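Quick one: Capsular polysaccharide synthesis protein from Ligilactobacillus agilis, structure tokens please.
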Amino acid sequence: MLIKKIYSKYIIARENDLSSFDFFKRIYHSLVDSIFFRLTLWRVCNDRELAMVVHGQRAKRKIKKIFRDRLLVQTEVKTVADFPKIIWWSWLQGENEAPELAKVCLESLRKNFPDYKIVIVTNDNLDNYVKLPQTILDKFNAGWIKGAHFADIIRLNLLAKYGGVWIDATVFCTDNSLMKIIEKNDMFVYQNLFSQNKGLIKMSNWLIASKKGNPYIVESAEILTSYFEKSCYLDDYFICHIIMSIVSEKYPDIWNKMPVYNNTDPHMLQLVIMNKFSEEQYLSIVKRASFHKLNRHLLLTDSEYYLYIKHSVGM
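--- reply ---
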């Protein structure tokens, strides 16, 4: 059964012009990585979160080594034009094929940002905005690059080229107050201030705002794209966050100028969404955050909170 599964994946890889050598290199790395993680888990007494930090630190060291020369080259930071009023939102199969939660979140953006151009990026129009290397497209089609990581490549390349705000499909918006602050700055991400891995991963990437040509975003995009173009396996699930964290060390002036907002408050609605609805609690949550990262894998049919936010955008 296992051999049949591997053979099936091999055929898909070859159909997408990926080499046999890279395929077996990928298999080998997956095995080695699994062994390394299990050994790490044993060493830290089954503390999975700590094991993931150790795993991520290993990937960080590798990335810094691979791109060492690139990271040493200083890039001039120039003041650019006004913040572009563009929101990038993506469901690759198209808006009509998106799950209801994503459609609700999209309507919340349309409601709160009528003065913004909302661009819906799909498989059909992606090439109109950014030209990704064919190798990356082949790896995505073969399943070597998962949807989440393909979206990481897309978001950084779009922001580097055009600027604007990337907002994940499952981010619900309740007001425009934070956006008014974002517009006055060169870039914005929610920062990872409290979790165990804050030294490794400095931000969330489900909402990234930037002016066009921001050197921090441009370099993050180029390194991430190069990584996926050359690598036939994934060193860590959070490779985009790790690369962005590494590049932030090169551009401390850009990073330190950002307004500081933690990435905990935007998850509060998700934490209570299956509870009985409380207007007092809801108002407290939306007072603390303008954007709310939700989870499309939760069954929200009977959620009173979900019904409330759905009705709030006219759905």
